[in-house]
């Protein structure tokens, strides 16, 4: 057999194998979706028992058809004012609708579908709602005042959600289908969207929308919410102005990005700031800001620009402050190196359960780079780079609190020494489920106190003393 023939034979063999694998996956998908279908069918039968719902859907279909017949130049907006009139006409022609259904509901739903994002439109417009979560057609949750609540809102079926997802991702040149079943996108108002669909999401198309707050929280707001005290605010402001390297840690949704934004607002306006994020969320008031956003790889798996690439590039942009939205992997090494080589005053966030946990996660992240660094060397980097960890939690009652402000004091032997400066002490829970506790100083002055003074920043010593009469 010639070499060419051999290669050809290998190729054929491989493609046979691939096909076989393909059948397995398709079979799996079929299995999953048939499982889901039977599941959904059960629900549908339940729904179909309600004749009013069926009639409303019928009317909606007729109305939709009528509208589409009239929209020739594709300008749906012009037709909106006439939709109610059309519904009245249809109801006149069809006796079955009369007296049974609520026309307003049908017309509102249709307008929401045509002009906005369907049934979740009112949720997106409600300023008290901060997050909208859709887990398949029957479950729509929102976050309101820190609490997650299930709403009455429902979609007709999977396709109805899919049409909304497409409406969101199409304008920004992304797509969602079986070959790319996960997508990150953004609404025109800046809200962040993640969509993931079957077969990866078993309950049906799943959509998570973190709403963009037009008016981001300020330090005063966080004090008002009880996230931190005035003394803590004075302290944090001084630390940022004195160019300490500050790391905000905490769980998902604990308010890390919000706190990072507030901390950034303490940076003097004459410094050059470079922000690096996966999806730009920070909103700085300063003028001299360069915002960079990472990019996922395309369908061929090419073209990815990671946070790490951006950190490296930012170092060549003469930054005075580097702000990293969230440190997740290898960029930790570059960030630490930058902090250790004169790029003071950097700010970042990371996911963790406590300040100590943040340290060990940073170690793991550095190891992800794949360079064989001894643990001790990594710890030296971390303890030399980071001055302060601000740890935040989302408590059971929905409030967010800064539970620790912790100084990274240095390395003793193999151990990074951490010293809490402020902590949240929980005393209990009251009848309404509210967490009762107190944010207070531990009484210990940070080691870097003198460094603050030499940079001309004064913190009244009383900040570190617990007020016994409060
Ligand atoms: N201190 C706070 N008090 C109350 N709500 C907050 C606070 N900080 C953030 N939030 C709300 O919590 C949600 C998550 O905040 P975010 O800063 O994005 O968290 P993270 O970055 O930790 O995931 C947002 O809807 C935000 O409005
Ligand atoms: Mg965040």
Outline the structure in words.
This protein folds into three domains: 78 residues, no CATH class; 97 residues, 2-Layer Sandwich (Beta-Lactamase); 246 residues, P-loop containing nucleotide triphosphate hydrolases (Rossmann fold). The protein is built from 15 helices and 15 strands. Strands 9-8-10-11-7-12-13-14-15 form a nine-stranded mixed beta sheet, sandwiched between helices. β14 and β15 form a beta hairpin. α2 crosses α4. It is elongated, with a radius of gyration of 28 Å. About 7% of the residues have low confidence. The site of magnesium ion has 3 residues, from α10.
Placed side by side, the strands forming the largest sheet appear as 9-8-10-11-7-12-13-14-15
Total strands: the figure is 15
β-strand amount: 15-25%
The CATH topology of the largest domain is given as: Rossmann fold
- Computed CA radius of gyration, to the nearest angstrom: 28 Å
On the 0 to 100 scale, the average pLDDT is 87
Shape: elongated
Structural class: alpha/beta
Number of domain units: 3
What's the CATH architecture name of the largest domain?
Answer: 3-Layer(aba) Sandwich
Order of helices and strands: HHHHHHEEEHEEEHHEHEEHEHEHHEEEEH
Oligomer: single chain
Low-confidence stretches: 17-47
């Amino acid at each position: 057999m010639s070499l060419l023939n051999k290669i050809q034979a290998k190729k054929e063999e491989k493609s046979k194998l691939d096909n076989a694998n393909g059948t397995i996956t398709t079979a799996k998908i079929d299995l999953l979706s048939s499982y889901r279908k039977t599941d959904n069918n059960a629900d549908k039968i339940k729904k179909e028992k309600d004749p009013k719902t069926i009639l409303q859907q019928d009317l909606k279909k007729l109305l939709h058809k009528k509208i589409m017949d009239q929209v020739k130049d594709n300008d749906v907006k012009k037709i909106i004012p006439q939709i109610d009139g059309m519904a009245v006409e249809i109801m006149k022609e069809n006796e079955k609708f009369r007296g049974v259904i609520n026309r307003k509901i049908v017309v509102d739903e249709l307008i929401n579908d045509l002009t906005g994002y369907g049934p979740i439109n009112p949720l997106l417009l409600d300023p008290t709602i901060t997050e909208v979560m859709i887990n398949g057609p029957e479950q729509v949750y929102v976050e309101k005042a820190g609490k997650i609540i299930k709403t009455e809102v429902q979609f007709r079926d999977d396709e109805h959600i899919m049409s909304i997802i497409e409406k969101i991702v199409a304008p920004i040149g992304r797509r969602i289908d079986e070959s790319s079943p996960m997508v990150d996108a953004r609404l025109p108002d800046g809200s962040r969207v993640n969509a993931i669909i079957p077969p990866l999401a078993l309950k049906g198309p799943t959509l998570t929308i973190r709403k963009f707050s037009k008016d981001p929280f300020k330090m005063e707001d966080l004090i008002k919410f009880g996230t931190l005290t005035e003394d803590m605010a004075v302290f944090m402001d001084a630390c940022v102005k004195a160019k300490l390297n500050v790391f905000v840690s905490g769980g998902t949704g604990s308010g890390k990005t919000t706190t990072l934004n507030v901390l950034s607002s303490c940076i003097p306006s004459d410094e050059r700031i470079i922000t690096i994020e996966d999806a730009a969320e920070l909103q700085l008031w300063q003028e001299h800001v360069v915002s960079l956003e990472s990019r996922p790889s395309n369908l061929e798996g090419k073209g990815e620009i990671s946070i790490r690439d951006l950190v490296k590039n930012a170092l060549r942009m003469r930054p005075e402050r580097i702000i990293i939205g969230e440190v997740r992997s290898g960029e930790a090494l570059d960030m630490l190196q930058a902090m250790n080589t004169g790029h003071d005053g950097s700010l970042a966030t990371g996911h963790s359960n406590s300040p100590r946990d943040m340290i060990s996660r940073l170690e793991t992240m550095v190891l992800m780079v794949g360079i064989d660094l001894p643990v001790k060397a990594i710890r030296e980097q971390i303890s030399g780079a980071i001055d302060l960890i601000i740890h935040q939690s989302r408590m059971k009652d929905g409030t967010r609190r800064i539970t620790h402000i912790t100084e990274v004091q240095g390395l003793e032997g193999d151990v990074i020494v951490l010293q809490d400066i402020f902590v949240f002490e929980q005393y209990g829970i009251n009848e309404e489920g509210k967490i009762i506790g107190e944010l207070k100083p531990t009484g210990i002055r940070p080691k870097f106190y003198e460094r603050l003074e030499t940079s001309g920043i004064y913190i009244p010593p009383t900040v570190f003393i617990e007020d016994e009469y409060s």
